[in-house]
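Example record used in the benchmark description.
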Amino acid sequence: MTEEVKMTEEIRIQKETQIQAPSRLIRDTILDTENYPSFLDSFRKSYVHESEEGFSDVLFHAKVLMFPIQFRMHTQMEGESVIHFHQISGYFEKLEGTWTLEDKGKLTNLKFDATFKMPPGAIPTLIKACKDHFFPEIIDFFQNEIQKRIRASA
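Model output (structure tokens):
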């Protein structure tokens, strides 16, 4: 039996991992939005509209499967441990979420919680790819980039 996702429903992705890195490095990597194309596989280009400490407004060009998509995101620190992001324009009917960091001594617990809604007419293959790969794999790409940054600074 195949799982069917209705095109009009909101889809929530939650993923959590522990990273052996200081929360400051993890936070800085997540806030490094202009460089996402260098370490997030599906992200091809980024155009910075505005950037200051703890806030960015960036237009992303991404590719999911063979489908090019664009979306403009606001990413903002909220306190010391929460980073909120939401789409202000672009492909998705809705895209928003949070990164939450919890310092556990030598480890940092990183939680990714995102909700997205595809536009009317989105094809099922693209919906499934976003649900099963594009969003859930983002945390893995961040984890790899953080490890690279740790090795580079050693």
